[in-house]
Amino acid sequence: MLISFEGIDGAGKSTQIQELLHALNARGVEVLTLREPGGTAVAEKIRQILLESSHEISPIGELLLFSASRAELIQEVVMPALASGKTVILDRFFDSTTAYQGYGRGIDMEVLRSIIAISTCGITPDITFYLDLEPEEAMKRKFSKTSIPLAFQDDELDRMERSGIEFYRKVRQGYLDIARINSQRFVWINALDSIAVIHNRILALLKERFGS
Ligand code: ADP
Ligand code: TYD
């Protein structure tokens, strides 16, 4: 089974993935968790290029780099893991590309569709948990646990996060559209709920849909 988590930066994806990993491991389910971009030696290098805040990358260059990282991860790790019967949890997958490069950067959706088809080898998640949060709230969360003075917080942002609040508003709007269009696969979750409430909802949904 392939489960993906989506949402803007700081929505709570990694937190929920850790909770789900523990819950599934406790039941004896073999789980592999992976994050995009990254997950192989080459893909991690591409991640560094993409997120290094001093780099300037064109929208198409950015799309191709995210897609190259994905192609590596899918072929080297995800396909073999699924073939051996493991449950794979992805912290972001191709819906991130549609939301960020499509709705955020404005790349043509037909171009995206064909590149996504190539980079994923046609693999689609069985279920996608979308954690919905306003960009302002996500930024507050990101900095709530740091002691960095407000004036210096910009230095802490990676290249994507430097794209600004308007960009993140478009990305969030994109996710809401994607969730509506893919209503069978997508589960909309209010990311303002507590960590425990969200975790229990995810467990209940997995039980309801897949009996596990
Ligand atoms: P993401 O992986 O989507 O970037 P994280 O899981 O790293 O998000 O969470 C970002 C921050 O928000 C972390 O400090 C985390 O502890 C906190 N957080 C996660 N989920 C919640 C929640 N439901 N309510 C409040 N804070 C949360
Ligand atoms: P990461 O730190 O992994 O995400 P988060 O902050 O949510 O924990 O950073 C990955 C960044 O790359 C994030 O800003 C989303 C972006 N991204 C894209 O723009 N397109 C993509 O296809 C993927 C996978 C990620």
In CATH terms, the superfamily is: P-loop containing nucleotide triphosphate hydrolases
Strand content: 5-15%
Largest sheet properties: 5 strands, parallel
CATH architecture: 3-Layer(aba) Sandwich
Using the coordinates above, name the CATH class: Alpha Beta
Number of domains: 1
Radius of gyration: 17 Å
Q: Ions, cofactors, ligands: which are bound?
A: adenosine-5'-diphosphate, thymidine-5'-diphosphate
Number of helices: 8
Percentage of helical residues? 40-55%
Structural class: alpha/beta
Quantity of strands, as a count:
5
Helix and strand sequence: EHEHHEHHEHHEH
* CATH topology call: Rossmann fold
Give the low-pLDDT segments: none
Kindly report how far apart the N and C termini lie.
Answer: 11 Å
Overall morphology? globular
* Adjacency order of strands in the biggest sheet: 2-3-1-4-5
Instruction: Output mean pLDDT.
Output: 95
Set out the fold topology.
Layout lengths: L1 E5 L6 H14 L4 E5 L5 H11 L7 H25 L3 E5 L2 H11 L4 H12 L6 E6 L2 H10 L20 H17 L4 E5 L4 H16 L2
Helix pairs in contact: 1-8, 2-3, 3-5, 4-5, 4-7
Bound molecules: adenosine-5'-diphosphate and thymidine-5'-diphosphate.
Verbal overview:
- Helices cover 55% and strands 12% of the residues.
- It is α/β, with parallel strands linked by helices and 212 residues long.
- The protein has a five-stranded parallel beta sheet with strand order 2-3-1-4-5, with helices on both faces.
- The protein is built from eight helices and five strands; from the N terminus they run E-H-E-H-H-E-H-H-E-H-H-E-H.
- The chain has a single domain (2-210), classed as 3-Layer(aba) Sandwich (Rossmann fold).
- The chain has helices at residues 13-26, 41-51, 59-83, 94-104, 109-120, 135-144, 165-181, 195-210; strands at residues 2-6, 31-35, 87-91, 127-132, 186-190.
- The chain binds adenosine-5'-diphosphate (ADP) and thymidine-5'-diphosphate.
- Residues 9, 13-14, 35-37, 66, 92, 96-97, 100-101, 160 line the site of thymidine-5'-diphosphate (TYD).
